[in-house]
Amino acid sequence: MNKKKSLMGAVATLLLAGSVLAGCSSSNTASPTPDGGSENSGASGPQYTFRLADTHPPDYPTVIGDQKFADLVNERTNGRIKIEIFPSGQLGEEKAVLEQVQLGAIEFARTNAAPLAEFNEELSILSLPYIFDNDEHLWRFLEGEMGNKMLDDLEQSRMKGLAYYSSGARSFYSRKPLTSIEDLKGQKFRVQQTKVNIDLIEALGASATPMGYGEVFSALQTGVIDGAENNFPSYYSSNHYQVAKNVILDTHQRTPEVLLISKSAWDKLSEEDKKIVKQAALDSVSTQRESWEKWEKESAEKLKAAGVTITEVTDLKPWQDAVKSVVEKHGSKYQEILDAVDKARQ
Asked: Cross-referenced NCBIfam families, in alphabetical order (predicted)?
């Protein structure tokens, strides 16, 4: 989807915009402190109340990261910049939220990188199957020069990337048995609404059914779809395991989450406030990642206790071979990024 089309599609959502409260006062200087903030950093200047949208429940790791970010901004500006968190999809599904972020109707959002690719196509690289060997490889790339450049490139789409959050590895789950790659054939799987994910499902011999995250549970209940794919914390917290009790750990994607701000809100901030917001986002990552690791382990234990059948994949080669065409199709235009991914292995 190009930027013009995204902006046109978002016009209908303008009535949902919240107002930004602003006022002015004199600035002051302050000395740095070890936590990356300042002793009186941002103590004076315009006052703002912003909103941050997230689709997950309040105790989910991304929302915990969101809250840490908001708390740090509030602390480092002495309450001058407040960021209110709206979890559980209160402000809409990710795609609709992103359209509002483009317009400045919502100032901040946490979203998976996959739907962001509809607004900035180079981010589709982060959803390519099996290009990251493990989480260590992924984070070496994300925290490197190219990963940071991809955040900055979102400005072309009227957004500003602030930081990446962890999202683990995605695997398939279904109402029907899943013990091998052959079991996927003919099944209908919900996917995020992106070209990469649709092609991925079809390359594995299954049928892709794009739909919003909030629709998946009822679609599983009614048999509209056979299954879906996600990480353990999302699979558990969404209660999808109650109707789709078969998981195969193929770990086909390690698509990160992205914390971002509307370009229009970013441009309103002073240079000092931009530094505070950016650093607070980066400083919130460790809290989010720690929460993620804890949730991932706890979710796995709870799923086993709930009687979910979990099948480990011991040989990924048949899976990797099946989706090579997807990597070639969507990665050929961004060889420089793929080279950086490969370099991050070293």
From this structure: dctP (TIGR00787), TRAP_S1 (NF037995)
Q: Read off the pLDDT of residues 26-58 as tens digits, 9 standing for 90 and up.
A: 333 333 333 444 444 566 789 999 999 999 999
Same domain, 116 and 229: no
d(CA 189, CA 184): 9
Torsion sign, CA atoms 314, 316, 322, 323: positive
Separation of alpha carbons 235 and 241, rounded Å: 6
* Residues 147-153: contacts with CB under 8 Å, at least 24 apart: 147/340, 150/122, 150/123, 150/126, 150/337, 151/258, 151/260, 153/120, 153/122
Beta-bridged to residue 83, according to DSSP, are 50
Domain membership of residue 102 as a residue range: 3-167+255-294
* pTM of the entire predicted model: 0.84
d(CA 322, CA 204): 6
The number of residues making up the chain comes to 346
Q: Are residues 41 and 155 in the same domain?
A: yes
Q: Are residues 289 and 337 in the same domain?
A: no
**pLDDT digit string, tens, across residues 245-283:** 999 999 999 999 999 999 999 999 999 999 999 999 999
Contact of 114 with 255, CB cutoff 8 Å? yes
